[in-house]
Write a structure and sequence with these properties.
The protein has helices spanning about 10-15, 160-175; strands spanning about 1-5, 5-10, 20, 30, 35-40, 55-60, 70-75, 80-85, 90-95, 105-110, 115-120, 125, 130, 135-145, 150-160. It is mainly β and about 180 residues long. It has a single domain (about 1-175), classed as Ureidoglycolate hydrolase (Jelly Rolls). This is Ureidoglycolate lyase.
Length: about 180
C-alpha cells in the first residue's frame, strides 16, 4: 500500500475538485432587518443534467479506524454532490480530477470541522470518511433518471495513518 499525504482543506487547494463550503472569506450580508446574516452562494449546485432535481439527504457516517485504506473511488457524472457536517467534526476528503481515473492524481484533505465540500460533476472521490465518532452530514445531490454513480477499484490501494493526520493538523495550525 502506498502512503497518501493529507493536506489541510482550503479553497485554493480544493478548487480543481469543487467548492469548500465555509463562512471564512465568504460573501455575506444582513437580512431580515439585521437579525440574520446570510452567507451567500457558497457552492455551485449542478444537478439539472437529464432532468435531474436537487435532493437533500442526511448521511450518517460511521467513524473509520486508522489506518484507512483507500481501495476504491466513485464519481457522479450527472451532478455535483455536497457534504455539510452537522456539528464540528473532522473528516477526510479523498479526490481525483474528472476524466479517466489517474491513481497518481489522488489527493487527500482534512477538514477543520465546520468546513463542507461540494464535489463538482464527474470528480472522483472516496465515500464519506468520518473520523473519531459517528457523524451526520447534510448531503445535497442529484435525483432523477440516468446512471449517476461510477465506481472503480484501485489496483494499488492508498493508506492514510495517524501520522499523516497529525501532519495535516500541524499545517492547519501554521496557516491560521
Amino acid at each position: 500500500m502506498r502512503p497518501l499525504r493529507v493536506e489541510p482543506l482550503s479553497r485554493a487547494a480544493f478548487a480543481p475538485f469543487g467548492d469548500v463550503i465555509e463562512l471564512a472569506g465568504a460573501r455575506h450580508y444582513p437580512i431580515n432587518g439585521g437579525s440574520c446574516e446570510r452567507y451567500h452562494d457558497l457552492a455551485q449546485v449542478d444537478v439539472a443534467e437529464q432532468g435531474g432535481r436537487p435532493l437533500i439527504n442526511v448521511f450518517r457516517g460511521q467513524a473509520r479506524d486508522l489506518p484507512i485504506t483507500i481501495s476504491m473511488m466513485e464519481r457522479h457524472p450527472l451532478g455535483s454532490q455536497a457534504f455539510l457536517p452537522l456539528g464540528e467534526t473532522e473528516y477526510l476528503i479523498v479526490v481525483a480530477p474528472p476524466g479517466e481515473l489517474d491513481p497518481a492524481a489522488v489527493c487527500a484533505f482534512l477538514s477543520t470541522g465546520w468546513q463542507g465540500v461540494n464535489y463538482h460533476r464527474g470528480v472522483w472521490h472516496h465515500p464519506l470518511l468520518a473520523l473519531h465518532h459517528t457523524s451526520d452530514f447534510i448531503v445535497v445531490d442529484r435525483g432523477g433518471q440516468g446512471h449517476n454513480c461510477d465506481e472503480v477499484a484501485l489496483a494499488e490501494p492508498w493508506q492514510i495513518d495517524l501520522s499523516m493526520l497529525q501532519a495535516a493538523r500541524a499545517a492547519q495550525t501554521e496557516q491560521n
